[in-house]
Amino acid sequence: MSGLHPDPIWPVVVLATIQFVDGIISYKPVEFVAKCFEDVHFPRRWWWIMTPIKFAAAAGLIAGIWIPYLGAVTCGALIAYFVVAIGMHIRARDFGRNLFVNATGMLVICVATLLWSFVL
Fold this sequence. Notes:
Elements: H1 10-27, H2 31-39, H3 50-63, H4 70-91, H5 97-119
Helix pairs in contact: 1-3, 3-4, 4-5
């Protein structure tokens, strides 16, 4: 049954690893992460929320290997997250690396993971 559990699993594990590492580097944002937040005018008082969001995404993806539909729902939530991120970059007229490599690249990875592991 499509969507119940991921098949193959490895794209989900790769995406979870990316989210986990992103959570770590967002805790005390490394320079390029802090610049990204600043460039889209994301309020500094809310920077702390990114680490739990990223860790929750990683946990949801990994737990979704065993819990029916959770991985697919988590992929969907990440897609929504990166669509919002792209919107923030566009609104801020940040048309550089942060938009085209980071946000758009992650959107592509999330969509590919959803399609490859849960839909096709």
